[in-house]
Specification:
The chain has 171 residues and is α+β, with helices and mostly antiparallel strands. It has one helix at residues 2-46; strands spanning 49-55, 66-77, 83-92, 95-108, 111-121, 125-134, 137-144, 147-156. It starts with a helix and ends in a 15-residue tail after the last strand.
Length: 171
C-alpha cells in the first residue's frame, strides 16, 4: 500500500514538472517578444524625432524658461546591456553638433528613461540626466558640472533637421 502511495506522489511531481517547464519557457518567449516590441517602438518613436521644449537652471537668478531642441536622427539598441546608440544634433553653449552617443536606457515598466551618469559628450563635456519618455512628451533633470536643472517638452515625429558639424552660433 505504501509503495503505491509513493508512486502516485512521484507521478504527480513528474506531471507538475512536465507541465511547468513548457509554461515557463512560453513565459520567457512571451517576455522576449514583449521586450523586442518595446525596443522596436522606442527606436521608431525616437528616430527622426525632434524634442522641443524648455529647460531651467537650478539656483539661477533668472527663473524664466529657456528654449531647447534636440534633433534625434537615429536610435538603435546596442548588443551590450541597456545601451542604445543615439545619433543626435545638439545645440548647447554656443555649439551646434551632431554626435553619436551610447546612452543607457532603463525601463520603468513600459516607460523608457534615458540615463546619463557623467557621460562625456564630444565637444560639449560631461553630463548627467534622467529623461522620461511618455508618449509624445519628455521630462527630466540634468546636470553639467556645477550647473543643472529641469527639462521638459514634446516630441515631434519626423521633424529632425539635417546633421551639422561643429559651428559657433551667433548670439
Amino acid at each position: 500500500m505504501r509503495y503505491k502511495s509513493i508512486c502516485r506522489r512521484i507521478a504527480a511531481i513528474v506531471v507538475v514538472a512536465l507541465l511547468t517547464v513548457p509554461l515557463g519557457f512560453a513565459q520567457d518567449v512571451a517576455a522576449d517578444d514583449l521586450h523586442k516590441q518595446r525596443f522596436e517602438k522606442f527606436a521608431t518613436t525616437m528616430s527622426g524625432a525632434k524634442l522641443v521644449g524648455q529647460f531651467t537652471m537650478t539656483g539661477a537668478d533668472n527663473k524664466e524658461l529657456t528654449a531647447e531642441e534636440y534633433h534625434i536622427h537615429e536610435v538603435k539598441k546596442l548588443d551590450e546591456g541597456d545601451f542604445w546608440m543615439f545619433k543626435a544634433r545638439v545645440k548647447y553653449g554656443g555649439r551646434d553638433v551632431t554626435v553619436p552617443m551610447p546612452l543607457e536606457v532603463k525601463w520603468a515598466a513600459n516607460t523608457p528613461v534615458i540615463t546619463l551618469d557623467e557621460v562625456e559628450i564630444p565637444l560639449l563635456g560631461k553630463f548627467s540626466a534622467r529623461v522620461v519618455i511618455d508618449g509624445n512628451k519628455y521630462a527630466g533633470t540634468w546636470s553639467h558640472g556645477e550647473v543643472g536643472g529641469h527639462l521638459f517638452g514634446e516630441i515631434a515625429r519626423g521633424q529632425a533637421e539635417p546633421e551639422k558639424s561643429e559651428q559657433k552660433q551667433d548670439k
